[in-house]
Amino acid sequence: MRKRTFNTLIASAFATILSLGAATAHADQLADIKKKGVLVFGILGIDEPNSFVDPKTRQYIGYEVDLANAIAQKIGVKAEFKQVAVAARIPELQQGHVDLLAASLTHNKEREALIDFGLTHFVTGSKVVVAKKSGITSVHQLGGKKVVTVKGGTQEPNLKRVVPTADVVTFESTQQAFLALQQGKGVAYINDESSLYSDVLKLGPKGKDYVVLPENLNVEPLAIGIKKGETALKAVVDQTLRELESSGAADKLYEKWYGQGSKLKFGKRTWKIESDKVDG
């Protein structure tokens, strides 16, 4: 009986050692990426100017696409892009369907329990757009009213924090939500500031029928999403972003996609790519 117990303990210990060894062998995602020669990014692909399809080349382009290509070049591999839904971004990363997320992903404390983040590469905020004919001039007038947005983003909790009684209806994509506003299925539409202005611009002359409310619901730091514990991969992501900042390339990318020469014509950058820390 004792001999059997002893042998069982030895076998169990040996199995544990093998298991730990296997886990260690598969812990370095960066090495796996170098081996396969491809870095797969999860992107939204419909979120101009961060990631969207060039109508001429049918290739993905955008601010975050440029950042992704810089990271892949730093590692010495090819960048590949996979379109993901807003609500599926983190599960796609956790399940290994993509290597990194460059998908307009807000870095917050709640998500830190699920994944790691690179340095903040853009700072924005959630805003609200309404039809001019609605007569709404402030987000505080949205109490008890139907507001539309995308499912799985931070927009709904951001609004609920400011206007708890708002009736929020979510859709699978921002396009569906914005169309719902145009169809009168809600009195307001919420999105990240940059994406929201882009949505309105796409309406052309009809854009004058809508107004963006002045209040920022929050501050949204966007960052690259990284699978938990992949320290080597995070180090390369952060190093690439720091080099873009120090070389002046980050400023050029901002001007290209957000500055006065772009469709959005945002003001000058008021932040730098330097930290992966966030408040709250």
From TrEMBL:
A GO MF label: ligand-gated monoatomic ion channel activity
One GO location term (cellular component): extracellular region
Domain spans labelled Ionotropic glutamate receptor C-terminal: 38-260
Secretion signal span: 1-27
SMART domains according to UniProt: PBPb, PBPe
Source superkingdom: Bacteria
Name under which the protein is recorded: Amino acid ABC transporter substrate-binding protein
PANTHER family: ABC TRANSPORTER GLUTAMINE-BINDING PROTEIN GLNH (PTHR30085:SF6), AMINO ACID ABC TRANSPORTER PERMEASE (PTHR30085)
Family of this protein: Belongs to the bacterial solute-binding protein 3 family.
Domain Solute-binding protein family 3/N-terminal: 38-261
